[in-house]
């Protein structure tokens, strides 16, 4: 049902086609799934939970369309990126259109606190995108800087996905714990994504995109902090277009450092905090799949460490 709602044709034909193609490419839908699980556990009416899950995935879809223009990406989930198939202009407008649909979906629920939560989430997404742009230009490589960017670009929407149903239900205590859960899960998810990019193990996605796009992911930052020579070469790479061979050579140097282990330790700490927030909540049986999502990511991180 969620998939059908995401692909619904409601606007100008070119944008409908562009957005339908984006969602047809698939994806984990982990954010929307989280919303539906929490909604069921919190007793949120199914139609309301669906509208909220739709808003979450529409917001995420908007960021993907905008990111592909910013990063000048050629592909998205193994398919031609919208900006290449339709144009940068329509891709930007498509992202704006999805954001408008998301805002309308949240507004239709008639809960001012939820609408405020959604607006603040979008504000964090925008702020993090600006911070990432500035970090690339300045070659700022601090871990705190990374966590601030990842917190806005990824964790903020995970937090909204997890806590939104509790805000809808007016349960402030549960919303606070679920926000903590979503933030920790989102940060761990982003760090795992950074490592998959570096190793080229993300299905349907070419490796080393962060390097070629000039994005200073956590493994790149940790490696640069420990190795001045690598830091110099990474900074030099930001000002030019890398060939695949150059990107892979830099990736091998990062992977040979202690950076991957450092990334896994940081991700594990955030996932541990996320799990503790979930345990404190003592959610009913309907929320069991939420623990499964947490366990899945934990197992993936352990697999990356060879444990």
Can you describe what's shown?
This protein has 307 residues and is an all-alpha fold. It contains 15 helices and two strands. The chain has a two-stranded antiparallel ribbon with strand order 1-2. Strand 1 and strand 2 form a beta hairpin.
What key attributes describe this structure?
single chain, 307 residues, mainly alpha, 15 helices
Which range does the strand content fall in?
under 5%
Average pLDDT metric? 90
Helix-strand sequence: HHHHEEHHHHHHHHHHH
How would you sum up the major sheet? 2 strands, antiparallel
Number of helices: 15
Low-confidence stretches: none
The CA-CA distance between the termini, in Å, is 38 Å
Helix-residue proportion: over 70%
Molecular shape: globular
| Structural class assignment | mainly alpha
The neighbouring-strand order within the major sheet is 1-2
Cα gyration radius (Å) = 19 Å
Count of individual beta strands = 2
SSE layout and pairings?
Blueprint: H1 2-6, H2 13-24, H3 30-42, H4 46-70, E1 75-76, E2 79-80, H5 82-85, H6 88-107, H7 112-138, H8 143-169, H9 172-199, H10 209-213, H11 218-226, H12 228-238, H13 244-255, H14 259-281, H15 288-305
Antiparallel strand pairs: 1-2
Helix pairs in contact: 2-6, 3-4, 3-8, 3-15, 4-6, 4-8, 7-8, 8-9, 9-14, 9-15, 11-12, 11-13, 11-14, 14-15
């Amino acid at each position: 049902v969620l998939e059908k709602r995401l692909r619904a044709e409601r606007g100008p034909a070119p944008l409908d086609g562009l957005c339908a193609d984006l969602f047809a490419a698939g994806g984990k839908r982990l954010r929307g799934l989280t919303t539906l699980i929490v909604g069921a556990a919190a007793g949120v009416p199914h139609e309301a939970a669906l509208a909220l899950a739709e808003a979450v995935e529409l917001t995420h879809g908007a960021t993907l369309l905008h990111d592909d223009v910013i990063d000048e990406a050629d592909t998205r989930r193994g398919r031609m990126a919208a900006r290449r198939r339709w144009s940068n202009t329509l891709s930007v407008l498509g992202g704006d259109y999805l954001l408008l649909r998301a805002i309308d979906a949240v507004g239709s629920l008639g809960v001012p606190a939820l609408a405020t939560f959604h607006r603040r989430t979008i504000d964090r997404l925008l702020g993090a995108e600006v911070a990432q742009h500035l970090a690339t230009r300045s070659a700022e490589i601090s871990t705190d800087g990374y966590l601030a960017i990842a917190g806005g670009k990824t964790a903020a929407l995970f937090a909204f996905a997890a806590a939104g149903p509790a805000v809808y239900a007016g349960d402030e205590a549960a919303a606070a714990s679920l926000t903590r859960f979503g933030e920790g899960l989102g940060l761990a998810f982003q760090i795992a994504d950074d490592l998959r990019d570096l190793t080229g193990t993300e299905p349907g996605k070419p490796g080393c995109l962060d390097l070629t796009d000039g994005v200073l992911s956590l493994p790149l930052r940790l490696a640069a902090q420990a190795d001045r020579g690598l830091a110099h070469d990474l900074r030099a790479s930001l000002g030019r277009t890398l060939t695949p061979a150059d990107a892979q050579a830099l990736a091998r140097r990062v992977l040979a450092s202690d950076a991957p282990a450092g990334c896994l330790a940081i991700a594990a700490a955030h996932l541990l905090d996320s799990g503790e927030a979930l345990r404190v909540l003592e959610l009913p049986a309907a929320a069991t799949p939420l623990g499964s999502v947490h366990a899945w990511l934990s197992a993936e991180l352990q697999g990356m460490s060879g444990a």
